[in-house]
Amino acid sequence: MKKLMNEVGHYVDQMLDGMVLAHPELRRLPGTTVLVRAEKADKVALVSGGGSGHEPAHGGFVGPGMLDAAVAGEMFTSPTPDQILEAIRAVHGDQGVLLIVKNYTGDVMNFEMAAEMATMEGIHVEQVVVDDDVAVQNSTHTIGRRGIAGTVFVHKIAGAAAEAGYPLETVAAVAKRAIDNVHSMGVALSPCTVPASGQPSFQLADDEIEIGIGIHGEPGVRREPIRSADDVVDTLLDTILEDAAVQAGDDVAVLVNGLGATPLSELYIANRRIARRLAKQGVNIQQTRVAEYMTSLEMAGFSISLLKLDHELAKLLNAPATTTAWRS
Amino acid sequence: MKKLMNEVGHYVDQMLDGMVLAHPELRRLPGTTVLVRAEKADKVALVSGGGSGHEPAHGGFVGPGMLDAAVAGEMFTSPTPDQILEAIRAVHGDQGVLLIVKNYTGDVMNFEMAAEMATMEGIHVEQVVVDDDVAVQNSTHTIGRRGIAGTVFVHKIAGAAAEAGYPLETVAAVAKRAIDNVHSMGVALSPCTVPASGQPSFQLADDEIEIGIGIHGEPGVRREPIRSADDVVDTLLDTILEDAAVQAGDDVAVLVNGLGATPLSELYIANRRIARRLAKQGVNIQQTRVAEYMTSLEMAGFSISLLKLDHELAKLLNAPATTTAWRS
């Protein structure tokens, strides 16, 4: 295992320190793994988070127009309820808090527990659970579909709704509509290594790829021989399009998300195929994002997320946001 | 070799297509590997470029506040003079063109040749050559110091100067001042594989790192056993600081540049050490950037760039820019 790190046990702590040292617009709550905006905003507050190892998710999406707080767990491990509660306490105002949770059993359980504790303290909390991964129905650590990179669209849209002054119930409803309309699927070309284990999360032969991989290296739907980028894109996009029921004339946003070690050039090669396929079907791409938004450490591979837009979702997606990993 | 690509010979072409399909604010000159802004600006025009494989450099820095055109060569290969000339022709207005060239023998020769051809056509062209890499004096493909990630600071500062309406000679002078004040050095944890060769550019043992690597996998100054992130940072930063003559009270900007496969979390761990070291020395960090700005395909590793700021350089660095890979 070759990692640019110091003691394994300090990985997450030192990463968070390095992040706030780079970005003075972020603040770390003392003694926690919670990043918040340096300045508190008067609106519905948004809290998300999850295991570390998916950077820039979620701290990279804290800022005006997106999240108010991100809670980091240990590597690929759900944040604890007390850390989530600290985040809720720090950012809540009069207008309540929305928790945006990726669908993993541990995350759902711990965010739920934190929500209950916050409610007992008189804080109004709502939750939405993102389950955008169309690859598998149930999987390691998850009942139902997993939450993956499409979550970033939900951060953006809920963030814009909160910034626009919508009340909590409406922000939650808009976030749910975004969740219902976002569909994702990924593929891995190589595994990643969690620092504490020191071993790759799985093994892939030199000519093999794993279709439908999760962001923690959970098994996908099948292993197949490596083939052309266009063929790989088609495999993912066919499944996504079938599930998303996207039709000619529909407006969509596309997110081509690098999992960590895949060069940006290859993500653009993938995007070429995605854009051409959608254009051929008469689908209107309103916005495309190509970068690393939700990674799996140094895993090679990528995911495609397709968000079907109505008028309001499009408006909220295009609204200004100023975070370290998303600007619009 | 596992790559997300189609035919090797179409790699650069399809990457550029995918890029303009994602970003309608970019336009590809038909029949070329040149990306330009969709809308021409009335000011000194800035052209940069170089071999492909360093994405987002340089197409990701085309846009308001930075470059007007980026010329892509084949993988790790200088763009040809005729392609550079096409870029100059497309973007030049009444106020002339500044070429920002990284110091590699092929790049310098081809940009020089294009400049001569453009001059014969009556276009006023100036050039600056970036040689920020303090690791080695001469190296494979290069006489003198190599140009690496610090080049992005030069794009930004020259871009702001052009946008502010400075005349060509002044934009060139400001760019040269940025070059004189930027110092960089990198380290590799793993090699990359150029698609056409199919073989890793060099071999590193499982416990070895290459200090002072170039962005094409050119040899560095020495191979050493892998050690802590803090120690690796210290090795790079000691060399940079010695060369940069940065002192207590100086203002600087820091760029922590991922080479391709290094997780953002590890870049932040590195930044923690950088920020603390500089603070301890009484150096004021005015701005920190942590991301992939100039990569070497899927090489693991990173580089540090330190830009010493005077009042004008700071102002230009902070001026607005709207490109796909840099916003401020």
TrEMBL record, chains A, B:
Write the Enzyme Commission number(s) for this entry: 2.7.1.121
Q: Which UniProt keywords apply?
A: Glycerol metabolism, Kinase, Transferase
User: Which reaction does this enzyme catalyse, per its entry?
Assistant: dihydroxyacetone + phosphoenolpyruvate = dihydroxyacetone phosphate + pyruvate
GO CC field: cytosol
For whether the record's keyword set contains Kinase, the answer is: yes
InterPro entries given in the database record = DhaK_1, DhaK_dom, Dihydroxyacetone_Kinase
Protein origin, superkingdom: Bacteria
One function term, GO molecular function aspect: glycerone kinase activity
Query: Which positions fall inside the DhaK domain?
Result: 7-326
Some GO term, biological process aspect, for this entry: which one?
A: glycerol catabolic process
- Pfam families in the record: Dak1
Pathway listed for it?
A: Polyol metabolism; glycerol degradation
Described purpose of this protein according to its UniProt entry: Dihydroxyacetone binding subunit of the dihydroxyacetone kinase, which is responsible for the phosphoenolpyruvate (PEP)-dependent phosphorylation of dihydroxyacetone via a phosphoryl group transfer from DhaL-ATP.
What do we know about how this protein assembles, alone or with others? Homodimer. The dihydroxyacetone kinase complex is composed of a homodimer of DhaM, a homodimer of DhaK and the subunit DhaL.
Name of the protein in its database record:
phosphoenolpyruvate--glycerone phosphotransferase
